[in-house]
Design a protein that fits this description.
Distance between the termini: 42 Å
Mean pLDDT: 93
Radius of gyration: 26 Å
Number of strands: 29
Helix content: 25-40%
Number of helices: 19
Low-confidence stretches: none
Length: 690
């Protein structure tokens, strides 16, 4: 988020303003009131007697609610201010703001209060890629409200603004002529309703979202209290961990988003401001991270992804039969197919990961009913791996976009243009087969075999998947292994050559289980080496590689989500100290972000910085960063389901002290887990340096 900005949100409806509570959106700034990928307010400025206000403080009350304390004029006026203003706002489908003006003087005050309002109805894609609007804007005054609108053929959006107090309304806002008595106050409640108008004139979302649409504030508070009460309770000696856990639960609640396609169930939106929608990969990873804490997110995610699974060949959307979506959008550019996101399928990893999540969900919850219900979708996903996923017919998963105009070039989680590179910084051609894709495919086959044997009662199919997984593992450990560096290549190029940069992707290989045991120790050593481990976390690309940049999006920054799965992978192969070191670094970093881990932060060495360096355009909150702390807790406590039981095998660093996680839900009912720090990371560090 932009520095100094204040955001409140409810799923994919959110408001981003400055510290005065004002919005004055430039074409390229993500400020405003947004809902379903459209900006419904681009101007929202409060003045008193023509004077802008200055901020005294901002209270972050709840994820959906904030309060601003203001005074008129420049900061030099603060000391003798006889007038103060409180703006309290909240979102819950619509946007509400209560303005309170306090007169601290002994004389009455006559004031002109003006709220300037405007809406550009920009598509979220337009904010990052400015373009001219094709449709028609309008603004007109009804009897008691201001109606701002935009229409382009069947795409019709409106913002309706009204006030509880009488106002003089014009096409640019609302004005109030008021008198505030000595030591008195004046209050008005402003209601901003966002509408996506359908052919029948009704809001498209009302019938589809039901009770999840336009919720009152008391209901949202009750919902948050119930959400936190259902989650396991954490008691621990480490204050940064305790505060980050609480923040993570609240942010997960904030990011719950009800798509138009799921009949009222909530899935994790990827992140604010750019990704406040359903992303296949992000929602799957977040669901995996949060299974011990909020298993309902996984269930809803699986159902939605299955319902929208690819069924045909569509080059524009990169759609293929059996493929799991990458992203879905509801804005103007998608509606008119200027962008392919209705939905877009440009991800090579979401399809195998769908099967991984389905199996892990059943292992935790015992919900065989859902696994049976999604059997055909899981089989189609597994079939995709061996058909459309294997572009070159050599048994690996490759990607190359079908949509060469607006499709994504890189269709792995590191999807920026320069993320897949050789050691010397060169970029390979297409198609590309990144290493972690093969790990996910291997894991999907192993897990699919378990489901086939135990739930679908198809032992022949299970045997087939197990043979294919074993063959993939054998070939992968041969073809991707960089002998002179003793690590796995980031990818294979179209000629089968190794794209030999050393990257954090090797940690995902440990998590998937595709790594031969004899090679795992080398990977663990790389992951906590000075080239890769900054002291705060594992860098996306090792220091010294040709494209390394500590503030490059996927070429040197530290991603909390990435680190949580790396730690999980290290734990899987028995590298307890290395796993604990990464967990300790990320948890320590979280305290410098007030417990809210961002999408990414700088990969500078910890010895150079007193605190982790912020990445300038990082999403915050972001779902899989919010989930990182939860997966690290699972990893540190060694929580693994085995049949009807939960195994607890803690491996904590001394710095975390004692941890108690109570009422962990699963097929076993509810179980408590306890652990005490025994791993001395300082001793380990001294031993490694010697």
């Amino acid at each position: 988020m932009t520095e100094g900005m204040v955001s409140i949100l409810d799923g994919n409806t959110f408001v981003v303003s400055d510290s005065q509570g004002d919005i004055d959106a430039s074409p390229a700034a993500p400020t405003g009131l947004f809902s379903f990928d459209t900006r419904f307010l681009s101007k929202w400025q409060l003045t008193i007697n023509g004077e802008r206000l200055s901020s005294l403080s901002v209270d972050d009350l709840q994820y959906f609610e904030a309060r601003f304390f203001l005074v008129p004029g420049e900061p030099t006026h603060y000391v003798d201010a006889e007038l103060s203003v409180i703006r309290q706002r909240w979102v819950g489908g619509s946007f509400d703001e209560e303005i309170t003006i306090l007169n601290h003087a002994q004389e009455p005050m006559e004031l002109t209060v003006r709220l300037e309002a405007g809406a550009d109805f920009a598509d979220l894609f337009e904010i990052k890629d400015v373009r001219n609007k094709v449709g028609k804007h309008y603004a007109h005054v009804d009897r008691d409200c201001l109606r701002l609108g935009y229409q382009r053929e069947s795409f019709h959006r409106e913002t309706i603004i009204s006030s509880s107090e009488p106002a003089r309304i014009d096409e640019h806002g609302l004005a109030f002529q008021i008198v505030v008595e000595p030591h008195g106050q004046w209050v008005t409640h402003i209601k901003v309703k966002t509408t996506a108008i359908g052919p029948d004139g009704r809001d498209l979302r009302e019938g589809l979202l039901g009770q999840h649409f336009d919720r009152p504030k008391p209901e949202m508070r009750r919902d948050l209290d119930e959400w936190i009460a259902r989650a396991p309770r954490l008691a621990c000696d480490c204050e940064p961990l305790a505060s980050t856990y609480k923040r993570s639960l609240v942010d997960l609640a904030a990011l719950r988003y009800t798509p138009l396609s799921l009949g009222g169930q909530s899935v994790p939106a990827a992140g604010v401001p750019w990704f406040a929608t359903m992303f296949g990969r992000d929602s799957i990873f977040t669901s995996l991270q949060t299974l011990p804490f909020a298993p309902e997110l996984a269930s809803a995610t699986l159902k939605l992804l299955a319902a929208l699974q690819g069924s045909k060949l569509d080059d524009f959307r990169d759609e293929e039969p059996g493929k799991i979506l990458h992203e879905i959008r509801y804005g103007e550019s998608s509606a008119f197919e200027e962008q392919p996101h209705t939905p877009y399928f440009g991800a090579a990893d979401s399809t195998p990961l769908f099967v991984v999540l389905l199996d892990e969900y059943e292992r935790w919850t015992g919900d065989v009913k859902l696994v049976r219900a999604l059997e055909s979708e899981a089989r189609r996903a597994l079939h995709w791996i061996d058909t459309y996923g294997d572009l070159l017919g050599n048994g690996y998963v490759w990607y190359e976009r079908r949509n060469t105009d607006t499709g994504l070039e890189n269709q792995c989680w590191k999807d920026s243009w320069d993320s897949i590179c050789y050691r010397d910084g060169r970029l390979p051609g297409f198609p590309r087969a990144t290493c972690e894709l093969q790990g996910y495919a291997y894991d999907a086959k192993v897990r699919g075999a378990r489901l086939a044997r135990q739930v679908w009662k198809d032992p022949a199919y299970a045997d087939q998947l197990e043979r294919e997984a074993a063959d993939l593992k054998r070939r992968f450990n041969r073809d991707f292994w960089v002998a002179d560096g003793e690590y796995f290549a980031l990818a294979l190029d179209p000629e089968g050559g190794q794209v030999d940069a050393l990257s954090s992707n090797i940690g995902h290989l440990l998590w998937s289980g595709i790594v031969d045991v004899g090679k795992a120790k080398k990977l663990a050593k790389h992951l906590v080496s000075p080239r890769m481990f900054s002291g705060w976390g594992v860098r996306t690309l090792a220091e010294g590689e040709g494209r390394f940049n500590p503030i490059g999006y996927h070429v040197g920054t530290v991603w909390p989500f990435d680190n949580s799965f790396i730690a999980w992978g290290l734990r899987r192969y028995g590298f307890l100290e290395e796993s604990a070191r990464i967990a300790d670094g990320i948890i320590n970093a979280a305290q410098y972000f007030n417990g809210r881990l961002p999408e990414a932060f700088g990969g500078y060495d910890r010895a150079l910085t007193k605190y982790p360096v912020e990445y300038p355009t990082s999403c915050s909150p972001q779902a899989w960063s919010t989930g990182a702390t939860l997966l690290l807790l699972r990893t540190l406590l060694g929580l693994e389901p085995q049949g009807e039981h939960l195994v607890v095998d803690p491996a904590l660093p001394i710095s975390l002290g004692r941890i108690e996680l109570l009422d962990i839900p699963g097929r076993w009912g509810h179980i408590d887990a306890f652990g005490r720090g025994r791993i001395d990371l300082n001793r380990t560090s001294r031993r490694q340096s010697a």
